[in-house]
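Thread title: Can someone regenerate the structure for this chain?

I was given the following input by a collaborator and told the matching structure tokens would be attached. They weren't. Posting the sequence so someone can regenerate them.
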Amino acid sequence: MPADRLTRFQRFETNLIGALGAAAIDALCRTLTWKVEGDHYFDEVLRSGHVPIVTVWHGRILPVIWHFRGRGVVVMASENFDGQWIARIIERLGNRTVAGSTSHGGSRALIAMKREIERGAPAAFALDGPRGPARVAQPGAVWLAGATGSPLLPVHAEASRSWTVNSWDRTMVPKPFSTVALVIGPPLPISESDHGLEEALNANETRARQRLT
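Best answer:
Regenerated them for you:
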């Protein structure tokens, strides 16, 4: 169901869930101990006159969204009801969204993200979203990098203690007062392949787990 076809009550629901969800995520993440590595890469890309495209596995979105809060990052969110309440959470945390997914409205959303990047807005991309298969990169981020000249920034997070949601992406939810290691890898060349992105994220995962030991 496209975002502009949600009923009035559904729009009310997405706004309410977004407000409550953003508050809950913010409260949770403020209890965590953060070990962040590579944050300077994001700022270095901006200083170079470009904007980064943050790339992350769908199952690690929660800590990554919070870490990059308030930076005006543009994220693609599905047009259906679930995608739109997630969009409201992202927006409440100080970022922005465009409606679409790789399965519905993807081309339109990618073009919208391209325009936002050309206006100077960083972007974030769940590589394997919205339906998987998990940890298999889809081509959208690489296309976006090639179309804009923006480098890809691989990001991964692991928690010392967490819950795992019973979903296709096995979403990780850090437990209160746990430690989260978030690793940002160096910018990847624009010509980087999907396979190269997967390798970079796997390397970040290894490094994040090492930071927790």
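The chain is about 40% helix and 20% strand.
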